[in-house]
């Protein structure tokens, strides 16, 4: 194992080969979203094992939307914003209304998972009942099966809020003074 890397080579091999349970895979995915060293390590292990870059991207991010792609005949992908254990978030243009929204997708491996679909429906239903200036508005829930290479794309659209993440802000600006932190909370 390389110095400072959190995952072991055997763990990476099991991750790439599909030898982890869904819970273990979710744990690794959450870790990869936060760790700056392990994605590079996984890339090195994948290259040594002969896995192509495209296959690696498919394993790490099974559902990759690319700029210009049209989802549900309505939403054109502009750019990738971020990802987490469940999926990805992209800035998209709603071609029907001519507005910019954020699209949250569920990873391709989870799009057939009834529990994931149920959680997403609940998230949309709950979010639509909450109206407050400090809460992001949720607009739509949908499934698009028009991209054979992706399978079904389960998504929700929400208000796009330009800015930076709290993590990125803290990385560049340092800790917040207690009064500012309290105001955010």
Q: How would you summarize the topology of this molecule?
A:
Elements lengths: L8 H8 L5 H13 L3 H11 L4 H8 L9 E2 L3 E9 L3 E8 L4 E8 L7 H16 L8 E7 L8 E7 L6 H8 L4 H7 L1
Antiparallel strand pairs: 1-2, 2-3, 3-4, 4-6, 5-6
Helix pairs in contact: 1-3
The amount of beta strand, in percent, is 15-25%
The strands making up the biggest β-sheet line up spatially as 1-2-3-4-6-5
Extended strand count: 6
Q: What sort of overall outline do the alpha carbons produce when their principal axes are compared?
A: globular
In short:
With 185 residues, the chain is an alpha+beta fold.
Supply the key terms.
single chain, alpha+beta, 6-stranded antiparallel sheet, 185 residues
Account of the protein in words:
The protein has helices spanning 9-16, 22-34, 38-48, 53-60, 114-129, 166-173, 178-184, and strands at 70-71, 75-83, 87-94, 99-106, 138-144, 153-159. It is α+β, with helices and mostly antiparallel strands. It has a 6-stranded antiparallel β-sheet, with helices on one face.
């Amino acid at each position: 194992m390389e110095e400072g890397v959190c995952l072991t080579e055997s763990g990476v091999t099991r991750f790439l080969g599909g030898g982890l349970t869904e819970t273990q895979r979710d744990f690794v995915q959450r870790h990869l979203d936060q760790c700056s060293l392990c994605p590079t390590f996984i890339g090195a292990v994948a290259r040594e094992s002969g896995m192509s870059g495209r296959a690696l991207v498919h394993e790490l991010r099974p559902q990759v939307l690319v700029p210009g792609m049209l989802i549900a005949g309505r939403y054109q992908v502009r750019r990738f914003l971020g990802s987490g254990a469940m999926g990805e978030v992209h800035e998209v243009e709603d071609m029907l209304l001519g507005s910019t929204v954020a699209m949250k997708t569920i990873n391709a491996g989870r799009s057939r998972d009834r529990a994931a679909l149920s959680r997403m429906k609940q998230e949309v239903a709950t979010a639509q009942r909450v109206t407050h200036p400090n809460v992001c508005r949720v607009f739509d829930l949908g499934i698009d099966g028009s991209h054979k290479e992706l399978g079904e794309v389960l998504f929700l659209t929400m208000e796009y809020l330009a800015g930076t993440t709290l993590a990125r802000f803290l990385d560049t600006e340092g800790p917040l003074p207690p009064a500012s932190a309290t105001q955010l909370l």
